[in-house]
């Protein structure tokens, strides 16, 4: 049940305490994939899981701009500071909880949001009247996860499947050729780079030519299944916090 | 040119310094209109103006949650604090300006956002590398503006036209009957109420039965025309700030 | 009963939960009216209402500096940021409420403060142990309200009446001649200007030659009457917040 | 030249870079002295110095509410947080400096404001386009300073002189009898108390019966002389900050 | 060269722009390892690297309290909020840079600090006059890294080696028996727990009986070598940020 | 019982609600005394008192960086803003109190921290679940206190005694000769200087040649005795806040 399209009376009649908040980003994804890739993909996974879940789940509108300053050298990338991002997420989650939707999954489509979402979910869970956990879809696609990159095979494939026509197929070659094969500029386990422009010419990491709508469907199924399993688990979870030892 | 659907290379190739940032809200709009009414309408106006404008305009993804705590008694309403809202808007505008899109209109669909948008636009214009102004669509529809209400004829009509099927036509009667005929609880010119639940039973103000898709089309044309006129004006505007007297 | 002049024991003996907090500004009012016009006028209205009200009302000292950055090109204008202004107002209101004066009217003399006062009053009323509403005197003078301007007939007249000698009568001509006849630089319903120096040469909007002490007295009576009516209404108001629907 | 009473054109014509910002407090001063004692006294000293100084000095309106939470148990005491207080002072000082009044003395009437004023003056001086120093009048009255107390002989006397009739003379006896003879609840050099109600029954520290208008005049002269000497010194002071060693 | 023990004149005479800032935590490490484990280990690695590095490196005093709320159920654990932690780190780094030590490694001993350090290092590098990167010692010990746990073999071993006597050897058995074998409470790749008390009885994760001073020495050598390699790399690194594409 | 060296189980077994939090600074102390002087001395006093006190006292790790921007012209000086400093102290105190250590003394070694510690202790005591007071060691050494200076006889002596070898004895002559004999640049009771470089060439105020390890021992005894007396007093103190009058 999508908040954007439902009326308040319909939402009020729903019997559930589960909600999904898709969290995206507007940022470069190479010459072939749209700037909205992360938002589109987070929405696709949230929608699929909400639809297939046996029970009602409230789906909030996607947060369209996240923590993406690392892509600021590429035109069209939008970003917000980490503190503003966390405040925005927290306010939205708290208003969901105000209406009784107090078991919330933050369905994330962007690696740069991950640690901030974990932090704000902890703050919400410890301090507010809600339980929240982040779920990043590309971490939940089994072996495929290792091929993540940026604008690479996974993200590209999911857009191809869920938003047909949104990927510029005729630029996949160019995307692959001028991309990079790894995220970061490393000394040991330390990434010396803070901007993606330090290690990729056109913003791509990984080979998007490996993408296909079929792969996209497979990824969507895997991620949606994982999210459904998560919803089931938190639907029954005891939310009491542990006592002081 | 929509950021969400374009690639960074396409946006980079665009020759414009104009951008639109739709700003919506997710909040009750009575039993008949969707919670996303304000976002949908802001997007519709921004899209129409960008399409009809003679020249390129960048359109950012809509901000889906605004200042709507006043509707908190109605299920599904989401809100953020004024300070977080302004920070989120400012960060997005500043990142647009970072890429050269430094003449920005904040296309607003929600009355509760108005004064915050005015304040943040002033802050941006005085302190940052950008010029921004808010534009609230229902202020720009001529005589119709006086019938605004909430979930009333104007908002309902624009949804009917731009998002056919999104209004629950069979609940218009109920919406009108249990609604209120004025916004607020007044003593002189002072509104004593801070929550809409203080003066409307079902969240409606005004009579949505007066809405129609035809009226919606008329409203969209009027608002889009006004926005195009605004874009033309700011495209040529001298952005130097006045000197100290 | 003015806090500035009373002792704590006298205030402690007062039996009331009503308080007035005058809120002014120190900003240019043309070559003829003092920089403190807004503060002087807010104090005049608060004093008149407190004196004429049948019952005791606590009057806090006036806040002398508000949101006036828009006049920054004119020497002597002082301002604070919106966030600091709201924090300062909220702290003062909360300390009034701490002593039991928890029904508070913010008696405002400056248009630039209006939306911030509305916002902070809502925050206080929803979150703190107090009920607060803003009252802007020049909104409450009947038909006269339409002639407001800036340093125009209304403000000038009230200073003439309440603070005889404070207006430079010999500069009224000059004030009128180099002033502007409207506030703002408009495209449709959008004000393109953020600083008053963008549309007025000497800071004046409206014709202060229409002012007189007699008019000032009339305005004071009208505003004080409106404020008294407001005090009566909130003295009896049920302060419970509405329940979730 | 008082900002509140002058027009912007008069202030603009003044040739000075000196400004005084009186900083007061609204807080209990026993059963005999008004809650506005600190503001009234700061204004009296600033006024006297500005008038007697050979040269022009801009005088801003007094800040009426400061850091006085320590008196919160006594009705009518108003306070703001230290961070809000410092932000409010800084914004006002920065707007003075914006017009060229960039050598500013913060003329303080309240002990509780002292360390915050020192801190914010340092911040302004190091980071902004201004030089600011705090001046607390009762530190500058020679041997008398040791008798300060609270609502004691010094403060009471200055009110008696500068605001005749404002002290309730008939309650001096009572004030003295139920007051305390020292500020704080000490263990060695550590004050264990955070609220004045921990060590004074009626809010008084010291014996206000020792006050007189004559003493008040003497104090005013001493403080004004000290402030004038300070103005002379900072008028000529080299404002360059020292270089790194 | 340790700031704590050196004089300013000695530091001033040093010819280097490299600095290390050890970042620790005070938090439970089971019944056998001290609450200061993370600080002690960060210091040990920083000291070893600074000593062995061919060239001068400034070493700041260790930050003793970090982001450790997740251990709040265990007595003695101290923590600060993420925003305060980042502000504290940033201020210290900026003051190092103020003196010319503008290539800084944040030598971290606590997993909970990692993402905040990455974020603040990015902020510093993009906005301030410095380049900073975090280095977490236990990520840089080759294959051993996989055995990290909490109060487990790695941390225990390094304390045994660098701070002989600090580990309670007689409680290793108990530590291991009541500990947990994995960090977190997982559903797929989502950690449902926010407090360590949700999955470990005594605070331990991993088997500290595998620890030894010999292992500790090996870990210290590996981590110090990695840190030295990092110092060499950043000493020569071009600090210009990449241009907009 | 030092948190850094104890395990959580040992701290948990302690029966006390008393805690000491040493608060230092890393800042220039002339050419002869280490940058860590204030931290070392705060630790020495806290340690001595905790050891000699009849009863258990928890000792937190020292805060190593405080409010020292006034020494920024001298290499190696580190500082944090006042607001960050207070937030860091407050979080640490609150986490101590979370475990039941809710009577806390902030053992301070740096004059620049004093007023911020007083303010934050008041905030904690009024708003949080703890009672905190600051104790500055050099205020508690009887007549010696008047000779404080900076890097002068008192601080130097205490380092000599508590950290033998840490003072560069061979530079005492130079330290004294190029030092200053008073702190500040005064006009009446107003210190016109905000940076120590405005009045001391090498950072020293006072004559460190008067220092000796014997004097240091005497100072340590005096300060520790005073701190013990304070601990005894607050151990028994009624922590209820006074009621409204």
UniProtKB/TrEMBL annotation, chains A, B, C, D, E, F:
Keywords: Hydrolase, Metal-binding, Zinc
GO terms of biological process kind: riboflavin biosynthetic process
Keyword Hydrolase: yes
Cofactor(s) required, per the database record: Zn(2+)
Pfam families: Creatininase (PF02633)
Gene Ontology molecular functions: hydrolase activity, acting on carbon-nitrogen (but not peptide) bonds, in linear amides; metal ion binding
Protein name per the record: Creatininase
Species for this entry: Haloterrigena salina JCM 13891
């Amino acid at each position: 049940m999508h908040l954007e399209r439902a009326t308040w009376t319909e939402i009020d009649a729903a019997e559930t305490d589960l909600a999904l908040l898709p969290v995206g980003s507007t940022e470069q994804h190479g010459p072939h994939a749209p700037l909205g890739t992360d938002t589109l993909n987070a929405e696709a996974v949230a929608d699929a899981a909400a639809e297939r879940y046996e029970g009602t789940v409230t789906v909030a509108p996607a947060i369209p701009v996240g923590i993406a300053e690392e892509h600021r050298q590429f035109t069209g990338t939008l970003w917000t500071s980490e503190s503003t991002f966390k405040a925005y997420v927290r306010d939205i989650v708290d208003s969901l909880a105000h209406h009784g939707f107090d078991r919330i999954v933050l369905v994330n489509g962007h690696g740069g949001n991950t640690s901030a979402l974990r932090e704000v979910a902890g703050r919400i869970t410890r301090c507010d009247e809600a339980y929240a956990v982040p779920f990043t879809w590309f971490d939940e696609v089994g072996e495929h996860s290792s091929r993540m990159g940026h604008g690479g095979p996974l993200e590209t494939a999911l857009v191809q499947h869920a938003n047909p026509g949104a990927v510029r197929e005729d630029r996949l070659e160019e995307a692959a050729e001028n991309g990079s094969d790894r995220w970061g500029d490393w000394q040991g386990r330390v990434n010396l780079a803070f901007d993606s422009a330090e290690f990729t010419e056109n913003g791509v990491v990984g080979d998007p030519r490996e993408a296909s709508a079929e792969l996209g469907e497979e990824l969507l199924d895997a991620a949606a299944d994982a999210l459904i399993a998560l919803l089931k688990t938190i639907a029954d979870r005891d939310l009491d916090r542990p006592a002081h030892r």
